[in-house]
Write a structure and sequence with these properties.
Two copies of one chain form a homodimer. Helix content of chain A is 50%, strand content 14%. The first copy, chain A, has five helices and three strands; from the N terminus they run H-H-E-H-H-E-E-H. The structure holds a DNA duplex (30 and 30 nucleotides).
Chain lengths: 101, 101
DNA sequence: CTCTTATTTCGTTTATTTCCTAAATACCGA
DNA sequence: TCGGTATTTAGGAAATAAACGAAATAAGAG
C-alpha cells in the first residue's frame, strides 16, 4: 500500500491513471500525450505497475495498460480511514486492537 | 492538491495523520511516538502543514496539531475521480480542464 | 532471416528527500 | 531577568527519484 502512495505522489503518474480511466491505452499512446522521453514514461509505468495500480496485456508489438480501479479505491479508503492495514494480512492475531486506542 | 499527495507519500506522515484522527496532539507528544529526532518530525509537520492537512494552535509552550479532515477527504475524492482540478473553491463547475489532448 | 515498430533496460547526471546535530527562538514561571 | 521546556531553523551528508540518450529486446510482416 505504501507503494501506491509513492506512485500517486507524482503528477505525471496521476495523469496517466486519469487517462486510463477513460479507456485502456498502449504505452506509446500514453507517452504521446506527455512531453517526456519514452524511457521516462516507461519508468513511470513500472512504478504504477509495482504499485498494482495498473495491469498490462501484450497485443502484438504494443503493450496495453489498464487501470486497476480497485487499488485506487483501496487507497482512497485508507485516506478516509487511515487504517493502513487493509492489505494482505493472512496472519493477524491481535492481542489488542491496532485500530483504536 | 499536489502537495497533499507529496505529503501522503511518506509513511511517517500518514502515521501522524492517523494519530491525529483520534485527537489533537502536541508536536512533542507526536514525536515521542516515533524513533526519529525531533527536528526530523518537525520537518514532517511542516510538510503536512504546507499541504494543509493539519493546522496548528499554540498553547503555552506547546504547539498543538489538528487534523484537517476535509483536505484528506478531498484527496480521497481525487483518487476516486481523478479530477485533480479541485483548486477553485466555491464554484467548481469546470467541465474540461487544463489537460490537452 | 531481416526490417520495422513498440517498448524497456542501462548508465549517467541532476534534483529532491530524508535524516541528523547544533543552534536559535518562543513561551512561561520564579 | 534567568532558567527550563518545547519547538523550529540551519547546514550538510546520504539515499532516493527523475530525467535523458543509447542500446537492447520483443513481436509481426515480408
Amino acid at each position: 500500500m505504501s507503494d501506491a502512495f509513492d506512485a500517486l505522489a507524482h503528477p505525471v503518474r496521476r495523469q496517466i491513471l486519469k487517462l486510463l480511466r477513460k479507456r485502456p491505452m498502449s504505452a506509446g499512446e500514453i507517452a504521446d500525450r506527455f512531453d517526456l522521453a519514452k524511457p521516462t514514461l516507461s519508468g513511470h509505468f513500472a512504478v504504477l505497475k509495482a504499485a498494482d495500480l495498473v495491469w498490462t496485456e501484450r497485443k502484438g508489438t504494443s503493450i496495453i495498460y489498464h487501470l486497476n480501479m480497485s487499488v485506487l479505491e483501496e487507497a482512497a479508503a485508507v485516506l478516509l480511514n487511515l487504517t493502513e492495514a487493509v492489505k494482505p494480512k493472512p496472519n493477524r492475531m491481535q492481542k489488542w486492537s491496532t485500530a483504536r486506542r
